[in-house]
Design goal:
By secondary structure, the chain is mainly alpha-helical. The chain has a single domain, classed as Growth Hormone, Chain: A, CATH 1.20.1250. Helix 4 packs antiparallel against helix 9, helix 8 packs antiparallel against helix 9 and helix 11 packs antiparallel against helix 17. The longest helix is centred in the middle third of the chain and has 30 residues.
Length: 409
Amino acid sequence: MIDKSSLSKAQTFSILAGAAVMLSLAMGMRQSFGLLQISMIRDVGITAAEFSLAIAIQNIIWGVTQPFVGIMADRHGARPVAVTGVAVYGLGLLLMRYADANWMVTLGMGVCIGLALSCTASNIAMNVTARTVSVAKRSVAMGAVSAAGSLGLTLASPMAQGLMAMSGWRMALVGFLGLACVMLPAALMAGKADQIERDVHVGAAQSVIEAVREALGHKGYRVLAIAFFVCGLQLVFITTHLPTYLDICGLDPSVGSTALALVGLFNVLGSYLFGWLGGVYSKRALLGGIYLLRSLCIAIYFSLPPTPASTLVFAAAMGTLWLGVVPLVSGLVVHLFGLRYMATLSGIAFFSHQVGSFLGAWGGGLIYSSLHSYDLAWQLAVAIGVAAGLFQMRMNVQPSARLMAASAQ
């Protein structure tokens, strides 16, 4: 084990770069699956509701497994978890590539990709980042990794659309398999954080069960987790259903792929911005503000007839507010309970996020299949977003009694 203060700048950069690339590609591909929906419905013979259910299963699998993956990362390190996740991600893409029935789509895009994201996406990347940098630089570093991680969508979305236009959606998945191969060395680089000593001697020693019990007994943590539900619902509703919504409205398919790429581009700015702001201003107020602003953007966009220009403006605004929540939520978890069980406790909060993602994907498809309109879906997304934002702003941010006692000593 080595102390983080003895890391050279090159060593620190390589670990953070590995975490960012792994996160970037994992999320970039996952957020581009909506572009495949229309073609897969036509060629595989599935319905919009079945496609949406596969995405919903992906999100709920991601959420259910994240706490357990967090426990494994806290106990055994990030490297074995991340490498396993990359392998499972590739398996999921292969199943999608050769899918000729709904069960293959559900198993590949739903179960395998969901499990893989638990091992390679934001929770593990933020855990690696928090272990690698000092407390003073933690919020900015998490914002920077989250920002760099947003670039995957600007690569994956246009690439998928281009390959689909030339050779069909199955070739787009071949391109995704190539990106999954790049994730492997990135996971190995990020896994070097396992060699860094953890800040485990803050407050009384705990078992993982005691840490979970402490977190669930904290009112602020419960508010944080419940409000995180809305984040998942709003974002997955947009990435899954925006391309179909634009197709219904008669816009060119390239508008959808460009919009998703723009989300990724502006997310770079937003993630770094909110990571920096989180080190200066109240994290709970910033989180609540993000939920309220997102709801306002959704309400304005979907209440007016969409145009290419309005869609791109909407994408830029939502991109700025996209993953800025990640460094804020992770930072609050560390603030409340310390670093020792960060991956576990962030994973439990993330389960709530993924329940929202499940409803955003599946519920949006179900509402559209039943009513032939997305109106009710976006109206519900706005209503609960406003409620969550207001509750988040009143969250209790006092550290746990264990950390308070340690601070007093």
